[in-house]
Amino acid sequence: MEAARTYLDDMLESGLQPDAHTYGAFIHGFSEAGKMQMADRYFSEILGSGLEPNDTIYKDLIRGHFKKGNVAKAFSAFICMLARGILLDMKTYNVVIIGLLKNGKMQEAVRIFYELCGKGLLPDVCTCNALMVGMYKEGDADKAIQLYEDMCM
Prior knowledge:
This protein is mostly helical and 153 residues long. The chain has two domains: 1-87, Serine Threonine Protein Phosphatase 5, Tetratricopeptide repeat (Alpha Horseshoe); 88-153, no CATH class. 75% of the residues lie in helices and 0% in strands. It has helices at 2-13, 20-32, 36-48, 55-67, 71-83, 90-102, 106-118, 125-137, 141-152. The chain is elongated, with a radius of gyration of 18 Å. This is Pentatricopeptide repeat-containing protein.
């Protein structure tokens, strides 16, 4: 990542303005490496330069914060995404739901699940499987079985 940062600095020094995809590559890399302070820095640079982050950039940022246990920051990025009018797809909902579940936020995950269903999106196997596993882990086998039965209908 150091070489990439040097490359970005060289771009800026020579008067070239990175686009959102360039910043997005940094956000992805730093998020994967668990360096969320740096990912946040580049996200702020996107916003500060007037560029629009795309859904992939938001997903990387959200996923990275959830991995580090920063539920509030992950959810803040999710809310920011909604406020900017970026359309949420099933992959985005999966990132949020799975992140909430991995951080012990079952009620919030279920609320988001019903929100996506209410918007007419069909949850995929990944979403339902994650919720069922979470329900079983919390000792709520009845809800997991009900979700499974609802999926089969």
